[in-house]
């Protein structure tokens, strides 16, 4: 039986779209929910057009009460009988209260070669440090920010005239390739890391 995947987004959902498009045929998973913390996230409309159930849990009314926000998230997810959560540009840090019950069943994609450059502004930080390569990482989510076992990485060269924007665009192309590969393997029970050149 296919695993049911919830994909969490905050914006246009380009990685969500790549994941959804990959979950066809003999794929061991199916998209069962797209959830956003913003009602105007562009990815929601796309998901609805694809016939995927959507939910919104706006973080703003919770005024910094992460526990209450995460309780609302959990209540939204529960009726959908989800097996795996894939964070795909979900711009909220989740605490151990939400993460721990999902440990081993939640993935995230991060735009750096972890453990380098956890958090935000990864491309600007990589350029400022003089890195010669950058990339992206899919990892299991743990209570520590951008930590957890690495399930896959893809690398891109840093070019002499790169800006944070140009580097981000090339890394994003690799994200759209890497994340679907890792999700397929993960849903099928294979957690060996995937390393793309």
From TrEMBL:
UniProt cross-references to InterPro entries, sorted A to Z? Formyl_transf_N, Formyl_transf_N_sf, GART
Please list the residues that make up the active site: 110
PANTHER family, per database record = PHOSPHORIBOSYLGLYCINAMIDE FORMYLTRANSFERASE (PTHR43369:SF2)
Entry-linked CDD domains = FMT_core_GART
Q: What EC number(s) has UniProt assigned to this enzyme?
A: 2.1.2.2
Sites binding (6R)-10-formyltetrahydrofolate sit at 66, 108
Please tell me whether the keyword Transferase is annotated for this protein.
Answer: yes
Which keywords describe this protein according to UniProt? Purine biosynthesis, Transferase
The protein's site described by Raises pKa of active site His is found at 146
UniProt name for this protein: Phosphoribosylglycinamide formyltransferase
Formyl transferase N-terminal domain spans which residues? 3-182
Q: What does this protein do?
A: Catalyzes the transfer of a formyl group from 10-formyltetrahydrofolate to 5-phospho-ribosyl-glycinamide (GAR), producing 5-phospho-ribosyl-N-formylglycinamide (FGAR) and tetrahydrofolate.
What is the native source organism of this protein? Roseovarius ramblicola
Q: In which pathway does it act?
A: Purine metabolism; IMP biosynthesis via de novo pathway; N(2)-formyl-N(1)-(5-phospho-D-ribosyl)glycinamide from N(1)-(5-phospho-D-ribosyl)glycinamide (10-formyl THF route): step 1/1
Q: Which family does it belong to?
A: Belongs to the GART family.
GO molecular function terms listed in the Swiss-Prot or TrEMBL record: phosphoribosylglycinamide formyltransferase activity
Instruction: Name the Gene3D superfamilies for this protein.
Output: Formyl transferase, N-terminal domain
Reaction(s) catalysed by this chain's protein: N(1)-(5-phospho-beta-D-ribosyl)glycinamide + (6R)-10-formyltetrahydrofolate = N(2)-formyl-N(1)-(5-phospho-beta-D-ribosyl)glycinamide + (6S)-5,6,7,8-tetrahydrofolate + H(+)
Q: Where does N(1)-(5-phospho-beta-D-ribosyl)glycinamide bind?
A: 13-15
Q: Spell out the SUPFAM superfamilies in the cross-references.
A: Formyltransferase
Taxonomically, the superkingdom here is: Bacteria
> Could you tell me which NCBIfam families the record lists for this protein?
PurN (TIGR00639)
| Transmembrane residue ranges | none
